[in-house]
Amino acid sequence: MPGAIHEIVTTDSTRTLHIMTPATTLPLMFNGFGVWETAVMRAVASGKDSIGVPMIFANDTGRYVTTIKRMGKDSVSIDSPLGMARAKIDAKGHILGYDAPGSTTQVVVTRLANVDVKAFAAMYADRPMGPLSRADTVRASIGGSDLMVAYSEPSVRGRVIFGAVVPWDVIWRAGANSATTFTTSKDITMGGAAVPAGEYTLFMVPNATAWKLVISKKTKEWGTEYDPTMDLARVDMTVAALPATVELLKYSFTPAGLTLSWDKTAVSVPIQAK
Fold first, then answer.
1. Distance in angstroms (rounded) separating the CA atoms of residues 152 and 146
2. CB of 3 within 8 A of CB of 21?
3. Do residues 112 and 95 make contact, with C-beta atoms less than 8 angstroms apart?
4. DSSP letter for each residue of 45-75
5. Residue 236 CB partners (closer than 8 Å, separation 6+)
6. Residue 105's pLDDT band (cuts 50, 70, 90)
7. Checking DSSP bridges between strand 198-205 and strand 211-216, what pairing results, if any?
8. Which of 12, 117, 143, 213 registers the highest number of CB atoms within 10 A of its CB?
9. Tens digit of pLDDT for each residue in 74-99?
10. Mean pLDDT, residues 10-22
């Protein structure tokens, strides 16, 4: 089987890895839309309704498959390890628009005839390096249990959040960047579900009228790397409208439980010591 060469360079060493992959393998990169276009053009040329494209991340040794599926005459879905996206295409498979609001990258892309690179460089020149959504933690003690939530806090930035940036009825990382981590030092109940002492990942499924909190036994996920077989529990959340916009997503503990507030919505779940 053909292979790929992966060279890892650090300040004091260089390590070369040989990865056995099919000859048709493409590199999988965050926001690498040229790669998506290559995969989509390959799918269009195949004449099939759906194909699997082998891929490897540029920064690890894992092997993955991205599925390109025809959704209509001028659109396809792209199901990759980064999540689900949809692209508008021309007859040859060139991407004219790309929309992935529920994915790990959460982007909307429009193809432009010309790009003013100098103007974009000037726009970003004064921005601090690092992720836009900074990391934060919140801690509390409820009934003798030490609790902690570690998450990243995205901004509203004038966008429509729930039902758009965060789609309805789709699993959501309940934050940004890495999935949200929850720890408890003692056995507790959340929304009536038994949660033994330990570390968990919190996901949520938003809905226009009702929300679910998903407590996952799998930890250390990035973004939307969700495995439904690892659910500890799914519980109902209380939804409330806020009188003013909360710009940065925030978690907070109260004597009654845990609350997430963002934009003009607050959702909460009760927590009790066992």
1. 20
2. yes
3. no
4. HHT-SEEEEEEEETTS--EEEEEEEEEETTE
5. 191, 210, 211, 212, 213, 269
6. low
7. antiparallel
8. 213
9. 999 998 877 788 999 999 999 999 98
10. 74
Single-letter residue type at 90: D
How far, in whole angstroms, is CA 207 from its chain's centroid?
17
The reported pLDDT for the residue numbered 58 is: 64
Domains of the chain: total: 2
| Structure-token pair, residue 140 | 């509390």
Q: Domain residues for 169? A: 134-273
pTM of the full structure: 0.64
Same domain, 22 and 80: yes
User: How many residues in the chain?
Assistant: 274
* Residue 29 and residue 86 in one domain: yes
The residue type at 97 = G
* Among candidate residues 261, 253, 3, 270, the one with its CA nearest the CA of residue 137: 253
- Compute how many other C-beta atoms are within 10 angstroms of the C-beta atom of residue 126: 6
